[in-house]
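Q: Hi! First time doing this. I have a protein sequence and I read that you can turn it into a structure. Is that right? Here it is:
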Amino acid sequence: MSFVFVAAVALTGCRRKPGPVGDAARAAASKPVTTTFARAVARDIPVFVELSGTLAADEESQVATQVAGRVSEVLVDIGTRVKKGDPLVRLDTREASLRAAQAGATVTQARERLAFDSAKVFDPDLVPEVKAAKEAADLAEQDAARAKSLVDSGAAPVATWDTARSRAEQARAQHAAALGAARAAYAGMHAASAQAGIASKQVSDGVVRAPFDGAIAERRVAVGEFAQVGRVVLVVVADDPLRLKLDVAEEDIGKIAIGKKVEVEVAAFPGQVFSGSITRVGASLRALSRTLPVEATLPNADGKLKPGLFARARVAVPDLREKGVFVPVSAVGSTGASSRVYVKKGAKVEERLVKAGLRVEQSVAVTGVTVDEEVATSNLSELRDGADVAPGGLPPCNGSHPSRSVARCSRRSWCSCSWCWGRSRTSASASTASRRSTSRW
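A: Yes, that's right. Below is the predicted 3D structure, encoded as structure tokens:
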């Protein structure tokens, strides 16, 4: 008996009286949470084809050198905006410049020798050497003709005719040789001019220029490196507009057409919608995936979107409509990757996991909620499944107004839009005036 008594005393001594902290916690847990409610409403929503794809540059160029040389200057870096023709990289072109100067001097020398006027058509007979040779040949021909006359008249020996004839033949040969030399010099002048053009082009190609408007995506060269012909030094992308590459399932092909509007969202800018349109539809399906390649074009003047971003796209199908249940955006909370709402059940709330869909102004379509159910729209962080609630204030407008010809005295029948707020105040004032008049009697 004594053992039982001692044990009872020991157990009684181990018990602690509730402290002020525990009482406060239990009181806070049992205290109703003040919140506002809004009714879920039904709306017609358009049918969308949900797609996913990747943003790509409208054009992408791996810019390479056309001549060999040491890199003397890199004028851009990753992210630099460029215009078509802007210089990007400079090579050391001093050797090419010297070759160009040498070829130019050769051209000048040939023109002076030929007395060539580039504004006129080349005539070899106008070359000084050819003109002199022709005059000498004409004179020798005349001397030969006179010598033959003298020989025929017996006034001169036959040797005189032979000598004059030989001189005339030599003069003709010299004239022909002068003509050939003039033509060869003219061809040489053309060759030298071509060499000068090539050398000048090499000097010009020593500056690598942007092929189109865009931005630098990659830099693959540094100052001091020796770049061989064809060395890729930069990658330039045209990022305005961008292409959105999509794969459309076989059953949705009939809902896709060129010109249809596309709404695009990316994880980098949550909640922001980018608009574009379908501009290209593939000619055939991919055999393995049974999908059709489709491309949309998205304006990107501000450069926010980047090639390579994963994107989700929606293409509206105007001919199809379906019913959806909408609740205020403020009624949807999130826990990690899950969305939830708190549905009113008497004086408590029930937590439901939902899937948020189309957003229209301040309402969002959800699954898991039925029409006319009331959902909490404030103090969601204080709510939990089965929590006691105390309605307070007015809920945000859900677009479902009561008939304007019917007066409502309960504030819970109204939302917080300007019309409902005015009607609720009018109804409350009328109710107060009625109570005052009754009290006088």
